[in-house]
Amino acid sequence: MPSANISCSKERLKVYLYLLREISNGTKMFEIEINGMTCGGCVKSITNSLQKIDTNAKIDISLEKQLARIETTLTQDKIIAAIEGSGFDVISCKLI
User: Fold this and answer.
1) pLDDT (tens digit, 9 = 90+) per residue, 22-35?
2) Residue 63 lies in domain
3) What's the number of domains the chain is made of?
């Protein structure tokens, strides 16, 4: 079997994987910095708000880091509105 000359930067690979995931199921991964969480109840409140509008969302929230990673079909605006509607401030929200 002939060897293939494959050269691919890590960034290009990340883009390809993102596009493949986007095409396959329409989900996007967001990383959100949240201000105002002080306890597990805060985490639960945000999780419940997001799950009300996307029951299939995969949500991982770090109280210690004040950071959430959300895999969802929701738009960035809907995510921010849900979190802020729960009484917390979104410092940043980026697609990863």
Assistant:
1) 555 678 999 999 99
2) 26-95
3) 1
